[in-house]
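Record pair follows.
FIRST:
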Amino acid sequence: MRSPHYFVKGFAVLLLAASLVACSTSGIEAIGKPDDADVKKHLLIHSDALANKVTISDMRSREVGGLLEVNLKLANLTSSDKAVEYRFSWFDADEFEVEAGTDAWTPVNLHGAQSVTVRGVAPNGSVKSYRLNVKGQ
């Protein structure tokens, strides 16, 4: 019979492999503003062409009727127009995604140096945090 450490090591290797695959397919973290931990935590850019060209700011959240509601500004950092799509990902207190993939991508045209306010409401009361996903059309 194999020792429990064998199974723990095997699980750790599988977990590491899964996280590497997830990182390679889920996009790149946006820098936005240098060393801005909130931007890195709440924005995921799924397009190399948009990295360092869009960011979020003025992140506000509140609880309404037991649901997390967020408002934030999505900003174009360049002088050229950007056609992007966004959707929210919602996470519970243990950082597990809640109702993954149920939100549709919402298109928005960001003119040069323009900011738009985007709003999202969590799908249920277990949600404690969020991430805005952005991709180019």
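SECOND:
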Amino acid sequence: MLRTVLTVCFMIVCIALMVVVLMQESKDSGLGSLSGEVDSYVRKNKGRTREGQLVRITTVLGIIFFVLAIVLNLKAFA
């Protein structure tokens, strides 16, 4: 029973992780990264922006994903 609940949670986390990763913008700045831009207000406060929140959610979902994957592969649930 517990294995079934963990498997369902694992599938929900997998789907949520895919959606959040696809919602993020590309990190490719092209030739703009060569100009050595000065930090802007947006870069300094990136954690408060939508993109910063998506990065944080991705990190948390990634950790949950790996923990559930390890727990589901333990021999105690076999």
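COMMENT: Residues 1-22+47-78 form one domain.
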